[in-house]
Request: fold
Amino acid sequence: MTPNALNDQRSTFADYFSQVQATPGWDAILQSFARFASIPPASRVLDVGCGPGSLARTLVRAGHTVVGIDSDPLMIDRAQYLAQEERRPEFELGDVRHLRFADSSFDAALATNVLFLVPDPLVGLREMVRVARPGGMVAMLNPSSKMSVAAAEAHAAERGLDGVARVSLVNWGRAAEANRRFSADEARTLFSAAGLAQFESAEKIGPGLALFVRGVRGEER
Ligand SMILES: C[S@@+](CC[C@H](N)C(=O)[O-])C[C@H]1O[C@@H](n2cnc3c(N)ncnc32)[C@H](O)[C@@H]1O
Reply:
């Protein structure tokens, strides 16, 4: 593949994900996740793998200070373009496996639909825990063990979804099958290994296709 072809493909993914984040369904899921994360008012929040920045913008509107990072420069370009409000998130290039931030520099660290894509999610989660302050919240959203192409298709049919809403749900099922799905028990084990306590989880989206989990960084790691 030539560099230009690669660039075109990544541009398409950034465009595609901007459309996904603009669907009422995905926007509602990110808002539901933001409520689930229970972030204290006026927090400093890190959104890892922010994509085009929808969750980061939601959190800024809720009064938080937000830094969004993503490993794809075209996602960062898109996020910066879409953030036009006076108060806006900061967006920058970064990799969840090697965060440039100092220890304890955020009140909360979040990752929606990211850790199921990385080869070793514990490495990324440990980095998120490192940059969260003691007592800070770490939360993630991923496909649950119930997610699959067939389950996504069934849910889309039941809800009468079409267009981007349907295609993106089915693509999510495909990505989950190709990468990783989390049961609550697996997520609990992962959070414990990363030094997180007070684990809580919730299955969302229809029969529970998505798993929301959160935990609190202990005082000692
Ligand atoms: C499925 S999209 C999710 C975007 C957004 N968080 C959402 O839920 O709408 C996954 C995002 O994670 C980013 N990503 C993948 N691996 C990453 C890594 N190792 N570090 C940071 N971002 C990563 C991708 O570039 C992409 O923007």
About this structure: Residues 45 and 93 are 16 Å apart (CA to CA). The mean pLDDT is 93. The helical segments are 3-22, 24-36, 54-61, 73-82, 121-131, 149-159, 163-178, 184-193. The two ends are 44 Å apart (CA to CA).
